[in-house]
Structures are given as structure tokens and as C-alpha cells.
Prior knowledge:
The complex is a heterodimer of chains A (239) and B (283). Chain A is 80% helix and 0% strand. Chain A has helices at residues 2-16, 22-62, 68-86, 89-100, 108-132, 136-144, 149-179, 191-202, 206-233. Chain A is elongated. The longest helix of chain A is centred in the first third of the chain and has 41 residues, at 22-62. Chain B is of the alpha/beta class. Chain B has 2 domains: 41-139 and 245-282, Periplasmic binding protein-like II (D-Maltodextrin-Binding Protein, domain 2, 3-Layer(aba) Sandwich), CATH 3.40.190; 141-242, D-Maltodextrin-Binding Protein, domain 2. The radius of gyration of chain B is 22 Å and the shape is globular.
Amino acid sequence: MNEWFSKMVSDFSGAFIEGDRWKLYFQGLGKTLQIAAGAVILGIIIGIVIAIIKVSAQQHSNSGKCPAILKILEIICNIYLTVIRGTPVMVQLLIIYAGIFVTMTDGTIAAIVGFGINSGAYVAEIIRAGIQSIDKGQTEAGRSLGLTSGQTMRLIVLPQAIRNILPALFNEFITLLKETSVAGYVAVRDILKMATNIQNMVYNIAPLMITAVFYLVLVIIMTQIQKQIERRLAQSDRR
Amino acid sequence: MKKKFALALAAFMMMGTMAACGSTNTNENAGSAAGGTSVTSETPNVDAIKEKGEIVMLTNAAFPPFEYQADDGSIQGVDVDIAQAVADKLGVKLKIVDMDFNSVTNSLKAGKGDFAAAGMTITEERLKQVDFSDEYVTSSQMVVVRADSDLSGDKAALDAALSGKNIAVQEGTTGDLYASGDKENTDSTIENANVLQYKSATEAGLHLANGKADAIIIDQKPAEAIVAANDGKLKMLDTKLTDEQYAFAVQKGQDDLRAVINEVITEYKGDKVDELITKHMGA
């Protein structure tokens, strides 16, 4: 037991402290966060645009008149959702790196675009579901009070929808953060890549354990942020 | 009004996505266009590199002593030192890109880098994709086993003994081809081995030591490094399974760049390379 413990300690100090190797994890962490943040922003933009198209297309076809352009956009959105949700993110990433950003050597941009496009599909569905979860009576009430459809959406539906969306949205962000660990496949030196490179020097699994701790801490921080926001949003609740 | 704006925005975004897909072709041409801008010059590719001010080397930093990540995060190794000499000769900066060994050849072909230096063996298959410089190191595939193993014999005996066993390799390397019994690129006679493809030589060593694999087939220098790092748990057999040459790779037809690399390699080949190997084995 004692021997095992001292081996653990020497493995971990070898993988983290010796030769200032901890700096490498933070370098990699920076890359991971850069990709995750870029992808989250891109994902939200794509997600909102698609959710708006899908929701307004549905509203229009419910009222019987749907402009052709909206119909076409909706079809494109549906194809996008089907393709992106139907293929693994790793495959998408490899295709984007080798097929679209053909001559770009650094995979960071490819990774941001790849994870962003992937995340956008999930975010779109989360937002659409959130908007549609709000009772139709809310919209009708807003309209009968003389608000335009835009005002109704902005002042009545969206504030309620956001509260429903948040847990699922944070779930998606957490998944996205963890998924970026495959970015090493496209020549990105993210935290996992750094850890495996350190593994080539120390020949044990300590670097992987350390990486796991890094991810865990990040996810715990994100969960705390989510809780804070939810508490703020629940302040005026009467439940 | 707002809705129209949103629609316009959506349409714009869609177009952006489409354009990204459509630009594949232009991107693809960019690589060859860079080479073709100065057709009149004798050395179009070298000129392009000088104009850029940097030369991009593709490698897989999981192959000590030829390339590995140092404690400060930089990539070091024998190949890096030689590549630096090439960059110095051209008077440009050396940029190193660390990627999976599997994607090195393809990425070079696609123009993601100017040359590849990754302890690459000249094989028939790779010659179809890229051009190779002169060789700078002669190497062999070696067998690494646990220290208590009684495996021994000449090449034919080892091939027979390894047939049907669990063999750990680094993905995409000659050892990988050999363990898989590839007849086109190697003269392996191994049959039906269960080949465990790992991303690095290190991982292969780790899994041999903990019993997941029965043996590793890998290049000589990494084999020595693995044995040295697993203090006494592993040993390398004396029998050489192959004789092969390492070389730098360039994109097909870039003879001017190849000539520059060859000049440097001629200078380094022999003693200087041996010195570098000793230097990086100690690190």
C-alpha cells in the first residue's frame, strides 16, 4: 500500500511538477477553452437563426399562408439538422479539416467551425422546443392586448422560454466542452493532446488523470454558473 | 419589419454556410497556385517559401528521439534539428505542426505543410503519394517483449511465433504494416495477428508492460527508448525484421525544395545524425 502510494506520488509529480510540465496543461487548456468558446458562440448564432426560421415557418403554415422563401429556408434547415445530428462530430471534424479548410494547417479554425456547426443543430432544437413549450394562450393574450407578433415574442414568450431552455442549453455546452477533446485529431494541441505528449515522456497514465481533473473542474464551474443564472431567473417566481 | 430582418439575416447565414462548402475547390487550387505563380523561376516552390518567410514541417511528436515534445512544450528531436538546418539554409522560420502520424502523408499531399519529417520510412505506398528526399537514417523494425519472455530466433522464426498473437504497434507505421502481414510494403510472413494500433510508441510500450499485448513491432530507436523508459520490465530482441531508410517527404514534383533538403541531408548523414540521436536519446 505504502509502495503503491509513493509510486502514485512520484508518477503525479513527474507528470505535473517536474520540468514545469504543469504549464503545458494550461497551454492546452487555453486552446480547449478557445475552441469551446468559439464553438459555443457560433453554435448559439446558428441555433437562434434556425430556431427563428423553424418557429416562424410553423406559425405561418398554421395560419395558412407561408411565403415560398420561408418554406425553402425551412427545408434547408431540416436537411442541416438531419445531416449534422445524424453523423458523429468526429467524422464531421475530420471532413472539415481535410476537405474544406484544405490548405489551412492549424486545425483551430476547423475545430471552432466544426464544433460550432455541430452544436448549432442541437442548440436550434433546444431553442425551438423552448419557444414552443410556452402555452399558446400567452401569445393569444399578448395579441389581444394589442401587441404586435414581434412584441409578443420578445416581451412575453421569449422571457418565459429562456427559463425552460437554460438547463438543456447548459447541458449542450458541457457536452460540447468535453467533445472538444477529439480536436487533437486535427493537429490542435488541446489539453488532451498535451497530456498524451507528456505521456510520451513519463510513460504512465498520470497525465490522463490530471486531464480528467481539469475537465471535471471546468464542468463544475459551468454547473455553478448555471445554478446562479437559474436562481436569478427564479426570483420573481410564485411556485 | 423585424421578421423580414431576421429572415434576411437567416438567408445571409445560409449563404455563408454554402459559400464555405463551395470554396473547397478554390482552396485546393491555392496550394498549386502558390507553386505556379512564378513559372518562369527555376525554383518556384523554394521562392514561394522564401516569400512566406516560413517553412512548415509536418510531424508526429510521439516518436522519440526523432521527434518528441520537450518540457517547455516545444517539439524537439533529430528531425527537428535537421529541419532547422533546412530552414536556416533558406533563411526562413521553421514552423512545426504536430499531428497524427496517420494524417501526415495526406496532409502534406493536401498542402498543409511544405515537407514532412517524421521518421518516415520510404515505402512503395507512400511513394505514390509524395516524393522522398535522400535517406538519412537506416533503421529496422524490432520486436520488444516483456523481460520474462523466451521469444527468440531469426526473422522467420519470430514471424511464425508472432502469428496469431496480440501485437502492439504505432498506427500507420511500418511496424503496423509488418504486423498486419502486408506483403506489398514489407516481406512479413506473419499471419492472422491481432494488431493493436496505438497512437504512439509510448502507449504501445505501456500496454505491453501491463500485459494487453504479447509483443511490439516498432522502429529500432523508439524500441530502445521504450525499453529504457520501462526500467527492466521490457527487452528488445536482437533480430532485425526489416531494413529500411528514413527520409523527408515533399509534395510530388517539388524537386527544387527536395534538392535543398538533400543538400542538408548529405551534410548531416552519418556521424552528425548519430550525434543528434545520442543527444536526443539522453533527453
